[in-house]
Amino acid sequence: MTTVQSPPAPPTAIQRPRVVARTGLYAVLAANAAVVAWFFAQAGFASNALIVLGRLTGLYAALVMAFQLVLVARLPWLDRRIGMDRLTSWHRWTGFGLLWTLLAHVVFISFGYAEGTDVGPIGEIVDLAETTEGVLRAVVAFCLIIVVGAVSARYARRRLAYETWHFVHLYTYVAVVLAFTHQVAVGTTFTSSSVATGYWYGVWGVALGSVVLGRAVLPLWRNWRHQFRVTAVVPENDSVVSIYISGKDLDQLPARAGQFFLWRFLTADRWWQANPFSLSAAPDGRTLRLTAKAAGEGSAALRHVKVGTRVFAEGPYGAFTALHRTRPESVLIAGGVGVTPIRALLEEVQGHAVVIYRVGSDRDAVLYDELRDLATAKGAELHLVTGPPVPDKLAAGELARLVPDIAERDVFLCGPPPMMNAVLGSLRELDVPKPQIHFERFSLAG
Question: Which residues cross the membrane (predicted)?
């Protein structure tokens, strides 16, 4: 049975959760950058300017590395406000910043120590690795970061299987440990005072603790508490299936319409594979539902999952929720199987809503009957837009015809990447303010 929830009124512009979280992150990073500079100055400067620059870039590389860990720790407070896709994107770009900062650290240090000698910078690195505790670990960490950065480049990433890329990426944690032990062994700023030592232990403790909490402790605890199991498997059409999942105390699970989980079905052939699927119905405290299209071997096998199968669910994740509303009325735009979080959101949003569902043909309109009934119950408008991709039936002119006041509404958008990019362009043409546009690129969630 469909339940219609009543969330609080839209937040004001000053209180927008994403703005608050983003500003908080920037403020914390800026404050730590200032603290690092202060400790660096307190430790004293070397006579060689290159060594001074090398030590400073090394300290900032350590700070960026710790910040990177926080970005991918999947902390619920950050994830609900910023979204995993944006946090992952920031993690990627700070990763390239880390790579260049580490490169500067290595270059400045090697040339600085080689100044006045006849061994050259490469020879100096070899001598330091052989004679100075912790330097060899730093060299190994740097090489690992180079490898991870190389496989994370767009060209390489598109040609690697996700499992291969993910396995290589795990070596980042090895690099983090090696870099920390290098800092403990030879970092003059680290050992300059007990306050500096305590600060750096705190930075690394928070960063590594966040990863352990968000990616291990919290998922394990939630699955132990809720005991998720499959209670029904319902084919929606030849290629789409809905799976209903129940468990204990689901009313205590902090899930909202529009969010997704990483689902592992604990069977002999699937326990190791996690797939991101959105909730296709608003959580009602008794059941969770996901709806998936057979887009690959993993999702195609879902229709064969047995009732009673145990499920390990990581989440809920995502900022694609009514928490980010800024206007009393909304437009919900779905493309293909992207209708799943849109259908769930329609249950939760307040005020007048317009739903636009873009599909190739009527038979592709998954969950359309539910959308129609829910729209009728809530007094929402529902438009089914069918036809080939060209001409674009969600171009600016068409959107303005369907929703004349679209610039005065929140817009929630979910669908295939090409369709989303096209609609985002149309929204820009219509001068819809950026804070009113809400979307998540779920392909990054895995």
Answer: 24-43, 49-72, 93-114, 134-156, 168-186, 198-218
